[in-house]
Amino acid sequence: MREASSLSYFYPVVHFDRSVTGAEGAVFSKSVETPHVRAEPFKELRLESPTRSLLMEAPKGIQILAEAGDIQAICRNELRLESKDGEISLDARRIRLMRLPEGKASTSSSSSGTRQTVYEVCVCPNGRLFLSQAGTGSTCQISNNVCL
């Protein structure tokens, strides 16, 4: 492996056991396999693919843990959580579903006078969620415009 101090970009062998540093980090032309990736103490670790995708694979699972902070997943389009054979669990004291669309209340379930502030969360056949004003019975309508 070439010395990192003299190069801003370098290309090590796929398997290595030495520290890799550089002014802009390290850039690899091929895939990298290593049992451990760690940032220097009090430094941020960043894995990035500026023009393609970033893939993490492991036959026995991948764990993301932040013992003293938050975990954020941010994307431009769709964020998908998928379990082929199991389940997806959301375990928290509070789960917030922000900016859900509100379905049109049917004439039989709309309240006369003041608008209700209680809603029920409804699920379309395609899995899309929406809010509907709560009534004495369910106010979810499958023919709702949100499900189209």
From TrEMBL:
One of its GO terms (cellular component) is cytoskeleton. It comes from the Eukaryota. It is found in: Cell membrane, Sarcolemma; Cytoplasm, Cytoskeleton. It is a single-pass type II membrane protein. The keyword Cytoplasm applies. It holds the Pfam family Sarcoglycan_1. One of its GO terms (biological process) is heart contraction. InterPro entries: Sarcoglycan, Sarcoglycan_gamma/delta/zeta. Keywords: Cell membrane, Cytoplasm, Cytoskeleton, Disulfide bond, Glycoprotein, Membrane, Signal-anchor, Transmembrane, Transmembrane helix. Its main location: membrane. Belongs to the sarcoglycan beta/delta/gamma/zeta family. This is Delta-sarcoglycan. It comes from Collichthys lucidus (Big head croaker).
